[in-house]
Specification:
By secondary structure, this protein is an alpha+beta fold. It has helices at about 5-15, 75-85, 150-155, 170-180, 185-205, 215-225, 265, 290-295, 325-330, 335-345, 360-365, 410-420, 445-450, 460, 475-480, 485-505, 515-525, and strands at about 40, 45, 90-95, 95-100, 115-120, 130-135, 140-145, 165-170, 210, 240-245, 275-280, 355, 385-390, 395, 400-405, 435-440, 465-470, 510, 530-540, 550. Helix 2 (about 75-85) runs antiparallel to helix 5 and helix 5 (about 185-205) crosses helix 16 (about 485-505). The longest helix has 22 residues, at about 185-205.
Length: about 550
């Protein structure tokens, strides 16, 4: 079976249905839960300085074409960048149990995603270019391997001065412990959330970030030293996800037409310099064969087709239309970008009462439209494959019912012809002309939203919820099996943007990975595998759990900022 057909089979096998769920262990062995923190014993470690003030720009300014002032690349700004992207945001405790929350959200708070940085010589860090693993529990960098000055200079010669690299990897066992075979999905939309977290953190410093999509998985493994690690067990193994470039000049770097902007051969670290032994994450592990087989099938080879095709070429949007959303943006409480980032939480329950003005809803939808000049969409280029199927419950000024946000105009005709024939496809009242939001069907959608989201009340009790629908088979056939991961990355970027938008609007959001795939398709009239639901999300008025105690993220090193 070719890799594309195998990945489609994996997607089918990991669907939830009303009569059965995707395969999992069924019962959680809490004594065997994987350690959420990877460390490399023996690797030289540098504790990063923690900021005591918040000079970050206003959250709303991150979306402006006038970029915030650019911060220099120093140990202090690298520390801020990593903390607000992958660091801890708080600790929670209840009846003797204690767990960490992070700035990047994760399915079940299990955190399969690991972060790395590749930096030049830096005062206070190291006198040579090196590869570092980020340890969020201690907010520290563990030096894994060294590069020569010549190799670093030649390898990044095409990049602007001061640019550095960020890598992401996944440990599938952390998710499979709870979610079994469906972990192959959850790891990847966690990567998408991490891309968004990295991009918004970079934006708060005036930096840009762009995923280097021409990099093969083998290239990423070599640079991050994954090929040089002796893993304690196969279940603890990290799988390469991506490499991104951070540009402190703020200018976007594009590896267009499949041409890599890095000289991977020059950057290859000296294997003799690798240090550190990865920790064992749990006592034993179930081997979820489908999860690891999928990780092999979707590996991106060298020379894979570039994501960007002629029909996907980005076009500059009419930015003069931003004035349409100016009032909605200005009406929000003035909060700094880092405050929004650090106080983001996943809601556990909604009050079923809170409503959202239509103008705020339109602003949220506007922020979800791909834009090659604004975060987070400048981090991940075309194709835009994800569209939104919305269940609107309490948006003041809008009729409750089903809606659609068509994020790629090229898919409008195909998507509408694939859905139910009785859908209206009309513009909602007051919707800005440039926003491709469509009213489909009137009705109370709360029961349907709850039912398709594995009967989770939170999907029907919010202001709105949504499913993220991907242009599925033809994207895989055009780009290859590796593009399956990309669906979830794009969906994760949508989710991360919604998380921050909810906080900015005085609400709260939460990602929903548990949903009945084909039941979602049935609601909207989709059949076959041309379109598939990849991820769900909901936003509403939060109900806080007063039983939980909240503690600062790094209590021994700093009292938390607001």
């Amino acid at each position: 079976m070719n890799p594309v057909e195998f990945i489609i089979r994996c997607h089918e096998q990991t669907k939830h249905y009303f009569h059965r769920y995707a395969r999992s262990a069924g019962e959680l062995d809490w004594s065997n839960q994987p350690d959420p923190f990877r460390v490399y014993a023996g690797a030289p470690r540098v504790m990063l300085p923690l900021a005591t003030v918040d000079p970050s720009p206003a959250y709303e300014s991150l979306f402006s074409l006038d970029s915030p002032s650019v911060a220099p690349v120093t140990l202090e700004t690298i520390s801020i960048f990593l903390e607000c992207a992958l660091g801890l945001s708080a600790w929670k405790s209840f009846k003797g149990s204690r767990w960490a929350l992070r700035c990047n959200p994760s399915s079940g708070n299990l955190h399969p995603t690991e972060g790395y940085v590749v930096l030049g010589a830096m005062l206070g860090l190291h006198d040579r270019p090196a590869v570092y693993h980020y340890a969020p529990a201690e907010h520290a960098l563990e030096r894994r391997g060294e590069l020569s000055e010549e190799g670093w200079r030649d390898g990044i010669a095409a990049l602007p001065r001061g640019a550095f690299l960020v890598g992401l990897t996944s440990i599938a066992w952390r998710e499979a412990w709870k979610y079994g075979e469906r972990a192959l999905r959850y790891c990847q939309h966690d990567v998408g959330h991490a891309i968004g977290a990295l991009r918004f953190s970079a934006a708060s410093l005036g930096w840009s970030l762009h995923v280097l999509e021409a990099m093969s998985d083998e290239d990423v493994e070599i640079l991050l030293g994954l090929d040089a690690v002796s893993w304690p067990r196969n279940s603890d193994r990290e799988h390469a996800d991506l490499l991104a470039v951070v540009n402190p000049s703020g200018r976007r770097i594009v590896d267009c037409a499949g041409k890599c902007v890095l000289d991977c051969h020059a950057l290859k670290p000296d294997r003799a310099t690798w240090t550190g032994t990865p920790n064992v994450l749990s006592r034993e592990a179930l081997h979820w064969e489908l999860v690891y087989a999928a990780a092999e099938a979707w590996r991106k080879p060298r020379g894979a087709p570039a994501p960007l095709g002629p029909q996907d070429a980005p076009t500059a949007r009419d930015h003069t239309r931003d004035e349409v959303y100016a009032a909605a943006s200005a009406s929000r409480p003035a909060r700094s970008s880092r405050e929004i980032i650090r106080t983001r939480r996943s809601a556990v329950a909604f009050d079923g009462v809170a409503a959202l003005p239509a103008e705020q809803f339109f602003l949220m939808m506007h922020r979800l439209m791909p834009d090659p000049r604004r975060p987070p969409w400048d981090a991940l280029g075309p194709p835009t494959a994800i569209h939104l199927a919305l269940f609107v419950h309490r948006v003041t000024g809008l009729t409750p019912g089903l809606y659609a946000l068509v994020r790629n105009p090229a898919d409008r005709a195909s998507l509408s012809s694939s859905m139910r024939s009785d859908f209206a496809w009309t513009a909602p009242p007051g919707c800005p002309d440039e926003l491709p939001l469509f009213f489909l069907l009137e009705g109370d959608a709360r029961r349907a939203a709850t039912a398709v989201s594995c009967h989770q009340f939170i999907a029907g009790a919010g202001v709105f919820s949504l499913g993220m629908i991907a242009r599925f088979r033809d994207t895989l056939e055009r780009l290859g099996a590796w593009a399956y991961r990309r669906f979830f990355w794009e969906a994760g970027l949508v989710g991360q943007t919604l998380y921050l938008e909810a906080e900015a609007a005085g609400l709260r959001g939460t990602g929903i990975g548990c949903y009945f795939d084909d039941a979602v398709h049935d609601v909207f009239g989709l059949t076959g595998d041309a379109w598939q639901s990849m991820y769900h999300f909901t936003i509403g008025g939060p109900v806080e759990d007063g039983r939980l105690t909240t503690e600062p993220a790094y209590p021994c090193r700093r009292a938390d900022l607001p």
